[in-house]
Amino acid sequence: MRIDGAGGCMENRIYEVDPQVAWNVVMLSINELGVTVDSMDTENKLIRFHNKEKIMQIALQCLDEDSVQLIMDARKERLQIYNWKVENKEVLAFFEIFEKKLREFRAFVLCPRCQAKVSSLAKFCPECGAPLK
Ligand SMILES: [Zn+2]
Questions:
Q1: Are the C-beta atoms of residues 48 and 39 closer than 8 Å to each other?
Q2: Backbone φ and ψ of 73, nearest 5°
Q3: Which of 34, 40, 69, 120 is the most exposed place for a label (fewest CB within 10 A)?
Q4: pLDDT of 110
Q5: d(CA 116, ligand 1 centre) in Å
Q6: Ligand 1 center to residue 70 CA distance, Å?
Q7: Cβ distance 17 to 23 under 8 Å?
Q8: Tens digits of per-residue pLDDT, 2-47?
Q9: Residue 110 C-alpha to ligand 1 middle, in angstroms?
Q10: 124 CA distance to ligand 1 middle (Å)
């Protein structure tokens, strides 16, 4: 669900994915957004960051073992009550990158021994030969 208003935007989406994997993908996606990270709370899975125009935060809530709710909030530094322009550019950009990376991540696993990115269908790591799963 997305709520737009007053120079800001908030959106939440639910994904069926391991919470730790989701958090890793959030980190990778934020890297790609080109923003400055202000604070990161790995334990509570909350990250605050900004770009030139907006202050943003993302919270990851574990719904159960393999589903998460991702909430992103972006707003201008000062609330603009009379601004009716939709300000969802960053939020949409983030979810687009996140979902793309999540698809990529699902198609690969990381080798537990050498951390190589390996097809999730492989039985052995092609880099180091370690058995997968
Ligand atoms: Zn390996």
A1: yes
A2: -135, 130
A3: 34
A4: 86
A5: 5
A6: 31
A7: no
A8: 888 767 899 999 999 989 889 999 999 999 999 999 999 999 999 9
A9: 8
A10: 8
Q: Which helix (H) or strand (E) holds 95?
A: helix 89-107
Q: Are strands 67-76 and 108-110 parallel, antiparallel or unpaired?
A: unpaired
Q: Which CATH architecture has domain 2-108?
A: 2-Layer Sandwich (3.30)
For the whole model, what pTM was predicted?
0.77
pLDDT score, position 38 = 97
Please give the full DSSP string across 42-89, using - where no structure is assigned.
TTTTEEEEE-SSEEEEEEEEEEETTEEEEEEEEEESS--TT--S---H
Mean pLDDT calculated for residue range 75-83: 73
